[in-house]
Amino acid sequence: MTRRLLSRLANPQLLALAGVLLINWFLFPNFFRITWQDGRLFGSLIDVLNRGAPVAILAIGMVGVIATKGVDLSVGAVMAMAGAVAATLVVAGYPAPVAVAAALVVGLLCGLWNGFLVAILDIQPIVATLVLMVAGRGIAQLITEGFIVTFTDPVLIFIGTGTFLGLPMAAVIAIVLLVMVTLLVRKTALGLFIEAVGVNRAAASLAGIRSRMLLLYVYGLSGFCAAIAGIIVAGDIRGADANNAGLWLELDAILAVVIGGTSLLGGRFSVPLAVVGALIIQAMNTGILVSGFPPEFNLIVKAALIFLVLIIQSPLATRIVPVRMPAREASK
Amino acid sequence: MSRSLRPLFATAVIFAIAYALAVMQFPSMFSTRVLGNFLTDNAFLGITAVGMTFVIISGGIDLSVGAVIGFTGVLVAVLISWAGWHPLAAFGMALAVAALFGAVMGLAIHYLQVPAFIVTLAGMFLARGGASVITQDSVPVSHEFYDWISDLVIRLPGGGRLSFIGLLMVAVFVVGALVAHRTRFGSYVYALGGNTVSASLMGVPVARTTVGVYMLSSVLAALAGIVFSLYTSAGYPLAAVGVELDAISAVVIGGTLLTGGYGFVLGTFIGVMLLGLVQTYIIFDGTLSSWWTKIVIGALLFLFIVLQRLIFAASAQGEKAS
């Protein structure tokens, strides 16, 4: 059991995260220093957790979608919509729990809409979610009437910037979500069903899996996660910015999932490793910032990272360097 | 023939109806001035959309085009304003860089066997990041060549102006349609989108065609970047953010199937014009806010996707019956 745990810890994603953190440490010797101040932890590592939380939450939702051979391009726009709904409602005088619940329902509905297009109308996921990606930001602006809606509601601000047991609230939410979704897919047959649909939807349906319902769940979860991330981001800046909230975060989320070893061709996925992927991305962002490089290098480093991961994952590389595949892969 | 042209016909009819409704509300929209501006204002989008049509017919997708437009604009502006190059030399350089860029993406897609959208996503990051590393500010371009080109207009009766870049877009569409429907490369692209495996069994050079398609898309995006630079007389690293979505929307609205193997370059032209019409209508109306553009484009996209499904379901049943 311990050996299995050790071999799990020695996987490429965690090694990559350790590598990035070490490079950060070389560039910025105080990187690992964590201090306790005013009832909360401070330090670059905590910052990585805090800033990485929205992408990690998006990635948790995105994993299931990509595992079914799909993709959800609309999560950034859904974030903007959820933030807009929450902010507009609290400004209009509704209590914060109502606003948060409404935002979550909006996210869920958006996800179900995507799921409806993919599962019932059989539209390609990339196109189906493109509709909401294009229109969603417009709808968000419609909700905020084109303004950046700022609010002073303490509950919403707490979700974005508060602390729980010294940890940033955003990170706590991400961790809770991670544990819940991981238990849901690994302690029930749900994960197996998702993989089956990802490998071959027709075969999965013939084997008795209700693939349409499953796709609806998966896209619904993605929209729900996007709404949570949207509320966090809105709480963080104390306002809903329909134009910029969650802009391009769908790409970061997809990248995190891919770095986490989930196959874009469906059928193999890992929720915790996708979160590790999100942390790798954020650790790189933070590293580039603290080491004084201009933030523009970020995009180039990200592009290089995608190519690296693609080369490692490609069939070409596995032919040249035989890589140990997870047992589930080998049985195919 | 009539069955395969049905989506194209549907798009054309919807454009005609939409334009007629707009003209009924604002009679001044029916003028050579508005039509001329349609071409000029959407020139860069149209040129990009031609490349995107080829990519989508081949069964792929290219998310990097907006970033390539931004990068080209910055590269051209920097070469002209800072390095003192002649614009034509700068244009040649930009097209060559884009060709190389597209070739690398095509090679990666073919040989690494990864989905096109993740490779072109990396390409988008690379091009956008490269542009931002060169400069973060808007670099103005003032050169007599630019003035000369912007003076190249054909005046139409009724105050309309056919600009050079508008005509260039029309020319790109005509050449694109000829390449798609009348050349061997064009039929290879269709074959690839229909079914890659059977295409390669039939002797289609899959590697060469894939690389060619992405080179074409990047080169046309660079050409669009040059047009954008002529249009705005400046280069800005964050220019044309999200144009890839508009281009994909135009292609889909134009009746091209996103699953590949089926589509028309001419349909994309109507798609671009329809997007232009939505924008012009919103400007004419004046009371509608600009974000309605996005919502209407999203709704149109949805409408056409559903329409395509219905038409194809109907024709598949018809084929079975016959």
Task: Describe what is shown at a glance.
The complex is a heterodimer of chains A (332) and B (322). With 332 residues, chain A is mostly helical.
Which tags fit this structure?
heterodimer, A: 16 helices, globular, disordered C terminus, B: 322 residues, mainly alpha, two-stranded antiparallel sheet, 4 strands
Task: Describe the 3D structure.
- Chain A has about 325 residues and is mainly α.
- Chain A has one domain.
- Helix content of chain A is about 70%, strand content about 5%.
- Chain A contains 16 helices and 6 strands.
- In chain A, the strands form 3 sheets. Chain A has a two-stranded antiparallel sheet.
- In chain A, helix 3 packs parallel to helix 8.
- Chain A starts with a helix and ends with a helix.
- Chain B has about 325 residues and is mostly helical.
- Chain B has one domain (about 30-315): ABC transporter involved in vitamin B12 uptake, BtuC, CATH 1.10.3470.
- Chain B is about 75% helix and about 5% strand.
- Chain B is built from 14 helices and 4 strands.
- Chain B has helices at about 5-25, 30-40, 45-55, 65-80, 85-110, 115-135, 145-150, 165-180, 185-195, 195-200, 205-230, 245-255, 265-285, 290-320; strands spanning about 140, 155, 160-165, 235.
- Chain B has a two-stranded antiparallel ribbon with strand order 1-4. A two-stranded antiparallel ribbon of chain B has the order 2-3.
- In chain B, strand 2 and strand 3 form a beta hairpin.
- Chain B is globular and about 55 Å long.
- The model of chain B has no long low-confidence stretch (mean pLDDT about 85).
- Classes of the chains: A mainly alpha (about 325), B mainly alpha (about 325).
- Chains A and B meet through helix 6, helix 12 and helix 14 of A and helix 6, helix 12 and helix 14 of B.
